[in-house]
């Protein structure tokens, strides 16, 4: 059997994204060392004084759902480290991992302290990133949509105090794009648990920029206010309708977007530019208008909505961002206008990432520059879509 260091060396030289080798290698371990803790009588564990502790589940928890992991802890216990030896345990564990060329760790099963804290000081939790869902179950097709819905609704509360964690997913999976789109608009971190060589690069490149960062949304992905306490199945209003083709249809209102008017501020015409990721189409409508959407089961689309503003009293413009990314608008950091005494107007877009940058523009620009370099652009007079190709590893 090869050593851990040998395995790390292999992974470090594996070109996961085809164009770049991994920068950092992390290992995944449980808070107690392993998922069941430390076995008290195992070789090498004696100096940490582990003892078995048996969680007691509340009646409310038991009435909600039986969990095989918790049931096993009830029956077999958790090998709990002596709190006075915890620092020594982590020092020893992490020194070993560092000696094997590991760069860091991902700590799982942090909630175990919640179940065995009686007599050890009680509950104490201070963190900014918190799981908002059950685990991702790739082999269970019925949980894919439930997972997304659960996190979205849980984020109504959790999103006010922490960054919701949507859990990992597989990029090579029948529901991969469905999960990828949810992470793109979820305001969360993005991580996958793909096996080496088992990746869908088309999906990954729509989530991750060439240099490895993601276009994280500023706020958590949550349901709009109008549907928080609505039940389209039982209230008889038929907000969602299913046609003979099996598609579920509904309407999208830009006015439902939280904080939209606040971020639009001055120079806003009151109209919006809307870009559909699936169709690549751009259209204009007022903030009070709506547009219809029809999707089949497990199908998804992302609509980027940007306020159309007036610059130099005559140019109407709205940056849509990188149209090759699920969260296209996440690439736009700022938009401003510089005018001179000859009524010439320059609209400056600051952003990050490379790809196809799109914008709504009422007129065709004379020229387009990317970091002072003149770049070719395309302009469609029908839908007013302006596109410019941003070279990879370039900031706008």
TrEMBL record:
InterPro entries: GH, Glycosyl_hydrolases_36
This protein's UniProt keywords: Carbohydrate metabolism
PANTHER family on file: GALACTINOL--SUCROSE GALACTOSYLTRANSFERASE, PTHR31268
Function according to Swiss-Prot or TrEMBL: Transglycosidase operating by a ping-pong reaction mechanism. Involved in the synthesis of raffinose, a major soluble carbohydrate in seeds, roots and tubers.
Family statement drawn from the similarity comment of this UniProt entry: Belongs to the glycosyl hydrolases 36 family.
Protein name listed in UniProt: Uncharacterized protein
UniProt organism field: Acer negundo (Box elder)
């Amino acid at each position: 059997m090869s050593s851990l260091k040998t395995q790390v060396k292999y992974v470090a030289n594996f070109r996961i994204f085809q164009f770049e080798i991994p920068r950092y290698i992390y290992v995944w371990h449980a808070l107690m060392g392993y998922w069941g803790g430390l076995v008290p009588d195992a070789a090498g564990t004696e100096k940490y004084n582990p003892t078995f502790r048996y969680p007691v589940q509340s009646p409310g928890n038991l009435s909600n759902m039986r969990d095989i992991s918790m049931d096993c802890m009830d029956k077999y216990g958790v090998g709990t480290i002596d709190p006075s030896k915890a620092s020594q345990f982590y020092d020893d564990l992490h020194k070993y991992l560092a000696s094997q060329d590991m760069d860091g760790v991902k700590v799982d099963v942090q909630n175990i302290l919640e179940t065995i804290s009686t007599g050890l000081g009680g509950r104490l939790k201070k963190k900014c990133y918190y799981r908002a869902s059950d685990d991702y179950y790739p082999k269970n097709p019925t949980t894919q949509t439930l997972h997304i819905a659960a996190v979205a609704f849980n984020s109504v509360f959790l999103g006010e105090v922490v960054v919701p964690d949507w859990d990992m997913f597989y990029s090579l999976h029948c529901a991969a794009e469905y999960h990828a789109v949810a992470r793109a608009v979820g305001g969360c971190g993005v991580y996958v648990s793909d096996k080496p060589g088992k990746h869908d690069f088309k999906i990954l490149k729509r989530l991750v920029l060439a240099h490895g960062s993601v276009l994280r949304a500023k706020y958590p992905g949550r349901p709009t206010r109008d549907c928080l306490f609505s039940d389209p199945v039982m209230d008889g209003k038929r907000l969602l309708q299913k046609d003979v083709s099996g598609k579920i249809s509904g309407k999208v209102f830009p006015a439902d977007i939280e904080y939209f008017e606040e971020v639009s501020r001055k120079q806003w015409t009151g109209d919006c530019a809307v870009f559909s990721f699936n169709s690549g189409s751009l259209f204009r409508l007022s903030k009070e208008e709506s547009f219809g959407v029809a999707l089949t089961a497990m199908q998804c689309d992302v609509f980027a909505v940007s306020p159309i503003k007036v610059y130099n009293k005559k140019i109407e413009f709205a940056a849509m961002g990188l149209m090759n990314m699920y969260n296209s608008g996440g690439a736009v950091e700022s938009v401003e206008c510089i005018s001179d005494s000859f009524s010439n107007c320059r609209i400056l877009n600051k952003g990050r990432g490379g790809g196809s940058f799109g914008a709504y523009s009422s007129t065709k620009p004379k020229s387009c520059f990317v970091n002072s370099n003149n770049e070719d652009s395309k302009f469609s007079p029908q839908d007013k879509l302006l596109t410019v190709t941003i070279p990879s590893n370039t900031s706008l």
